[in-house]
Amino acid sequence: MSERKKKLYLILSLGFLSAIGPFSIDMYLPGFNEIAVDLNTDIAHIGLSLSSFFIGISVGQLIYGPLLDRFGRKGPLYIGLGIYIISSFASVLVHDADQLIGLRFFQALGSCAGMVASRALVRDLFPISEIAKTFSYLMLVIALSPIIAPTFGGFLAFRFPWQSIFITLGIIGILTILSTVYWIPSGREPDKTKSLKPKSILKSYAEVAINPHFYIYAVVSSVSFSGLYAYIGGSADLFLNYYKLSQQEYGIIFAVISIGMTISGQINTILLKKFSSEKITFNALVIQCIIGVVMLLMYEVGWVNLFTTVIIICIFLSMLGLIFPNTSAMTLEPFSRNAGTASALMGSLQLGMGAMVTGIVNVIPHHGGHLIYIIMLICCVVSILVFQIGTVKVFPKYNTIT
User: Fold this and answer.
1) Within a domain: residue 228?
2) Distance CA 189, CA 70 (A)
3) Does 164 score more than 90 pLDDT?
4) DSSP state of 335
5) Rounded-to-integer distance, Cα 126 and Cα 57, Å
């Protein structure tokens, strides 16, 4: 096999690892109505299974980070994927919403191993100059998830019982293990000096957290991405209940909105040839804030319908295709020895905020997209403020590389 093909399979496999969590979120959203009816509850209750998934994925990443540094990348990864597969198949057997909420937590604990390991492996296997570009390629695979997953999930929910969605996710987990075995190198060697005592683990996380490159760029990435989770958390209610779409129509709309992220992620690889990651990120945040203001104002004056809702959300979320690859690269750049720990802490922060935002969307009573638009605007405003504080106030004082 040629080196070019090996690199292609490597990036695709890393993309699958990165996308298994998002795929597990997006694929079951079109089945919310059927799941709620079958389990004798409402969509809001089923929505808590989304929050439990985010909680599990944020907590689990903190567990896998030190394990990936101590034992190497693949051992903990296989264990995590095993947990994911078992939880996926077990979800077929649930009899009430609370059981589903619990199993989604464990499914998340398994899936986050792939998310942490994939970021750490990018740091291991690619030179620093190629990290942002590689994350853009991974973003393509991740962005395909909300295009393919809800469409396929809507088809399954329409043609078969909703349990077929979780059977499919279990099969995807098995295929992901196989691609990892055959196409992904081991990455950094296990660090036997790494202690797994709680005090040592906390010290490792503290060393990462106090680095200005980490806490500025990780917060920018996490807060800006929370706008996506606000949309994900409220999209089922917005499109299924407010706009009265079918499951298949919802899946198609979800896919259309996600196309923007796919395109912008690849535009980022072109922009990186001429502009720095910092400049691309700042301009994307500015555009996102402008779109957020327009989005909320249009709702307030009654200029929103299904068409304008889809277009404006698509443009808003497309900026994440520029923000996420660059902030991820800038966050992990200072770390080589602690790449697993840094990747875990970054991912935990992102998903922890995602859990909080989806919880807010599902708990606070609302109708239509008003609450979603408010949260999305708050997220991009906070992100650009943190970015500016970092570049203007923090980095000039602390030019530290760990």
Assistant:
1) yes
2) 9
3) yes
4) -
5) 25
Please give the Cα distance from 53 to 68 (Å, whole number): 21
Joined together, the tokens standing for residue 182 give: 């055959």
Nearest residue to 384 (alpha-carbon basis) of 216, 272, 208, 245: 216
For the chain, the domain total comes to 1
Q: Is 389 exposed, middle or buried (0-12, 13-18, 19+ CB in 10 A)?
A: middle
Q: How far apart are CA 110 and CA 61, in angstroms?
A: 9
Three-state DSSP class for residue 87: helix
Q: Model confidence over 245-286: pLDDT tens digits?
A: 887 788 788 788 878 888 898 899 999 999 999 999 999 999
Q: 340: which residues sit within 8 A by CB, 6+ positions away?
A: 64, 65, 66, 67, 68, 69, 73, 116, 117, 120
The two tokens of residue 145 are: 């998830």
- Which residue, 146, 111, 378, is CA-closest to 255? 146
400 part of a folded domain = no
How many angstroms separate the Cα of 153 from the Cα of each of 18, 61, 159, 160, 234?
A: 19, 26, 10, 10, 17
Residue 283 lies in a domain: yes
**DSSP character for 41?**
S
For 205-237, what is each residue's pLDDT tens digit?
A: 999 999 998 999 999 999 998 998 899 888 888
DSSP letter (8 states) at residue 197: S
Whether the CB-CB separation of 282 and 174 falls below 8 Å is answered with: no
For residue 398, what pLDDT band results from cuts at 50, 70 and 90? low
CB within 8 A of 5, min separation 6: which ones? none
Question: Model confidence over 58-68: pLDDT tens digits?
Answer: 889 899 989 99
Does 89 score more than 60 pLDDT?
A: yes
What CATH number has the domain bearing residue 390?
A: 1.20.1250.20
pTM of the full structure: 0.79
Length of the chain: 402
- 371: domain range? 3-182+197-394
* Cα(393)–Cα(21) distance, integer angstroms: 35
Helices 320-332 + 97-125 axis angle, to 10: 60
Distance from CA of residue 161 to its chain's centroid?
27
